[in-house]
Amino acid sequence: MTLFSDPACPFCHRVRIVLAEKGIAVDIVDVDAQNLPEEVMDFNPYGTVPTLVDRDLRLWESRIIMEYLDERFPHPPLMPVDPIARATARLFMYRVDQDWYQLMGRIIKGNRNDDIAQARKELRESLIVTSPVFGAKPYFMSDEFSLVDCCIAPLLWRLPILGVEIPPNATAIHQYMKRIFDLPCFRHSLTEIEREMPHETARR
């Protein structure tokens, strides 16, 4: 099994967290998402990372890869068994991508200062409004670490480099971040580039 991964990409980071949590033996090949080798282009018609190659199987899109890994390597499980709970978890992941990752994309790729500032403001406010949800259970709306947490964690780790600061009184978010960032699977998933990124808990 081989994962083609950009060491700075949050979508690749998600998959690396899953691999680390499950202890899956995999060759991780670091690539530049803006200058992918021909090999990746041959495996993935969209020319994106993460791209997973497992024998004759080629997968792309981080959530598809994450669910495949969870089903192929069922221990520890990262999705609920109950169909309703599974569907709810998928909705959470969809909303994280639509609401938070799209704003992150606007911050990173924006070419107008006013749009970048607006995206920062919207992301900060959306996270703060969600603060009670972060505190409702040990993990995001769950008593167990799940794929939803794997989706959220890379974005929260990158908040300082995005210029988004969570106020100290949003205690539930800060506690959630510390809980997630202290997990062995998260620590193990970090690349050298990601380890050098400042993060919220380091400043508190």
Radius of gyration: 17 Å
β content, as a range? 5-15%
Output the strand order for the largest sheet: 2-1-3-4
Number of strands: 4
N-to-C span: 39 Å
Descriptive tags:
alpha+beta, 2 domains, 11 helices, four-stranded mixed β-sheet, 204 residues, 8% strand, single chain, Glutathione S-transferase Yfyf (Class Pi), Chain A, domain 2, Glutaredoxin
What does the secondary structure layout of this molecule look like, with pairings?
Elements: E1 2-5, H1 10-22, E2 27-30, H2 38-43, E3 51-54, E4 57-60, H3 62-72, H4 83-109, H5 113-129, H6 131-136, H7 147-157, H8 159-162, H9 171-181, H10 184-189, H11 192-195
Helix pairs in contact: 1-3, 1-7, 4-5, 4-7
Describe the model:
With 204 residues, the chain is α+β, with helices and mostly antiparallel strands. The protein has 2 domains: 2-72, Glutaredoxin; 83-183 and 198-203, Glutathione S-transferase Yfyf (Class Pi), Chain A, domain 2 (Up-down Bundle). Helices cover 57% and strands 8% of the residues. It is built from 11 helices and 4 strands; from the N terminus they run E-H-E-H-E-E-H-H-H-H-H-H-H-H-H. The protein has helices spanning 10-22, 38-43, 62-72, 83-109, 113-129, 131-136, 147-157, 159-162, 171-181, 184-189, 192-195; strands at residues 2-5, 27-30, 51-54, 57-60. A 4-stranded mixed beta sheet has the order 2-1-3-4, covered by helices on one side. Strand 3 and strand 4 (57-60) form a beta hairpin. Helix 4 (83-109) runs antiparallel to helix 5 and helix 4 packs parallel to helix 7 (147-157). The termini are far apart. The model has no long low-confidence stretch (mean pLDDT 94).
